[in-house]
Amino acid sequence: MKRFCSLALILVLYSHTISLAQSIVHFRISKPLCLLTFLEAANKQWDASRTYSTYIYKHLAPEDRDRFARLVDQFAGLNMATYSSSTASPVGRQKPKSVYNAIKGIAVRSKYTEKFIQNISGNVPDEQLQTLRDVMLKAEPFYNDIIWNEYKNAAEQQLAELEKYSGRADVIFVKLKRFYGSTWPAHVPFEIGIYPIPGAHGHTTATPHGNSLVLAVLTGERDYAMRMGVAIHEMCHVLYDKQPFKTQWREDSVFAAKSSGYAKYAYSYFDEALATACGNGWAYENLSGHIDASDWYDDTYINGYAKAIYPMTREYINSGKKIDAAFIKNAISLFKRRFPDAISDYNNLLNRVSLYTDAATMDEFQWINKTLRKYYRITSCSSSFPIADNQTVGLIKKSPGTQLFIIHENHSEDLAILKEIFPELRTKRFERESLISFTDKKKRPIIILNVDGADRIANGLQKMVQQKNMGNGDMVSKID
User: Fold this and answer.
1) What are the residue ranges spanned by the domains of the chain?
2) Which pLDDT tens digit goes with each residue over 394-416?
3) Measured distance CA(394)–CA(27) in Å, rounded
């Protein structure tokens, strides 16, 4: 009997050891990841931390500004935005994935820059690879002076505190995996690369890259449960992405069956709202013992939608239920109730958009795209230029969703083309500078920003922000 008990104890201990060894989350600090996120913030990319960007330039020595600016320009000039997307998923679920997205995931798992460069060899052309290597090596002294030398210990302290949640994160993950009905394999852990942003408060970002997650941490932060909730939020995106195709199509059909004009917008935010409700809501409550009373997401639609579906989400997870048709139908109703003006609100309409401009070069197009993102949060943007190009015209005719045109140069030619495509424009007279908004026969929101020169694009976007929505009256308004 004693021998049996001893054997049972050994088996229990062995099982516990295996459980610990197979923890679903592993935290790490990667210098290559730190350098990439440092350069992104220095480049003031639309998806970088605003707090981080401000800190970098506030602490950059005046005598280094020109040299640092040239380095950042080199980084910005790297073209690593080649996209691919699975066509097996429903169109509403397809997410273009860039080469740079994969590179960020590799950076999480690379300890040194030279090893990182070796690991991504073959993903990018040799010339770009060499430029990236040179930029990162030259950026490292700046990074060390501004961030690493002072905040290395604080970053390691943040890592140690987050690691304490690993066991509880395993339990949470199992429940969330069931809720999503995901196929994520239990033996594949999430590698979470953290990077420090100095301070106790501010804007932070996090992104998923397969089973590699990127997580910004504030060096003075003490609400570790909140930060762990953000990490779980990113894990939820992966669970959503890894749902079986039959599950994806079943959920897609529920959204498609709803005749409400709100269903497609509830669908477009569904992934982000779910991740927020699960990670920032349910997981945080599970880890801390109380609900976070502050905003969960830095976006009105996602924050409001997540909080609206939270009671239902919590009930499903706690009951061991999977997302079903009733859940989705209720989510659509809750979205409509929370955002009755969504179908005409520019902030919503530009969340997913097809962008067309009369830019003459890629640099000019990228500048226009970057300017647009200063005014609107855009999570998905397909694009083509110039407008007069035959390929662009073909895309305009068949692309779904919001169609945004920014015309600053070839007014007569571009408007003539658009009048052929959209009969609604043929009887309208336009000011030299005007904002035109209407819904076409395919029920697509059409927005045309017509301005006199590239330096007036910001003025046109300010007009959109001021006007707020498409309105119910005259489809043409003058830009002051």
Assistant:
1) 25-163, 244-338, 346-478
2) 999 999 999 999 999 988 899 99
3) 47
